[in-house]
Structure formats: C-alpha cells, structure tokens
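Handoff note, outgoing to incoming analyst
You'll be picking up this chain. Sequence as last confirmed:
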Amino acid sequence: MVEDIRSLIVDGAWPPGSRLPVETDLAERYGVSRMTMNKALGQLAREGFLVRRKKSGTQVAQPRAESAVVAIADIRDEVRRSGRAYRFRLLARRTRPGKEEDALLLGGATGGGPVLWLQGLHLADDRPFCLETRLINPAAAEGATAQDFAALAPGAWLLQAVPWSVASHRVRAVNATAAEAKLLEIAVGEACLEIVRRTNAAGDWVTGVRLLYPGSEHQLVANFGPEAGAAPARG
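Most recent structure output, in case you need it:
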C-alpha cells in the first residue's frame, strides 16, 4: 500500500500539488482500516512525499526548494526554481527601541538604538512557504525606514541596496509553536527548519533574520571538494 502510493507519486500519476482522495476512500480502495491508512499517509508525509494540512487535506508535496548552507539566497529565486509563483505578504512592521530579546537574532545587543522590526510570509502559489522575522539597523541600512516592504521583501531589498562584509548562520530543526503553525498553515509541533542569520558591515550590524520553513518545503545543500575541511572558504 505505502509502496503503491509512493510509486504513483514518483511515476507522476499523482503530480506535485494534486490532492489525494479522502482517507476513507483510500482505505476502502486498499481494503484496510482508516487508522491503517492514516499511519501510511503519515509515513509518506515524514518521507517528504506528501503534505498534510488540516483545511486542505493531503496533497502530493512540491519538489523541495534548495538553498546553499553558506549563501545568502533570495527566497524569490528559491520559489521560482521550484516552478511556483512567488509573492510576499507583510504581516507587521514597526520601528521601536532595541530589546534584550533581539540578541537571539543578532548574536549580541542592538546597541540601544532604534530598530526596524518586520514579520512577513513568503508564499509559493499562494501557500505559506517561509515565515520571516527580521530586524534592520536603520543606522547601517540607509533608506530602510522609507521602504514599506508591502510587496518587495526586506531581504530582497537589502541584497540590492545595502552592502555587507560578514555574515553568520545558525541552522537547526525546531517544532512550530501554535502561532507559527497558524501562519504557516501546518500542525502545531510540526518539524520546521530554522535559519537565523546576521550580517555586518564596517563593524556594525545590518540585519538579523529568522527564517522558518515547514520541514516538508525545504532542504539545505552544500557543495565542497576534498580540501573543504582544510581551510575556510573565502569569497
């Protein structure tokens, strides 16, 4: 049963984005109980073949977007490479004093000056793809406070407008909180990929960002040669 459904997906009989029949219909088709079918679909979801959502049911997963471990990629490109339409939706934007909690994004204090705090959703075919929470240092990113970021995502604008010299990444697996799950339209506690990044220029921080991807939507890749462990890469 699991092998048959997996083959239907791999062979293209059920293409990416297609909706599966409801569990009861699938259980009847394969002559098993609904509980057994639920476990089978859960296994395929964990393997990355399916995406299960409360409101829209079970769908065949889209090809996973890829980004390099050490590169700063434009999320627009990640989505478009997977053949889907990209859109950014700003959820919140405000200028406020720096807080102690900002150190989690920045790896250090803000220095006490004002920060621009933003949160938004990157969408692929109008489905949540990545939840972004970002701090920008207005003193280092000239013109940031004049941007409304209603359509152009802050990361894309920063890549175009603000030079940076040093970046640091932290990558880990986390479980979605209730608030995050609601925004990403996934189950509470679902595995997600978290990327936290900070960039600096001329000795001052420019931006700190937390990117949260549903685990079924994203993977990291790294290309390296036999000497990769001998010395740090330069670029």
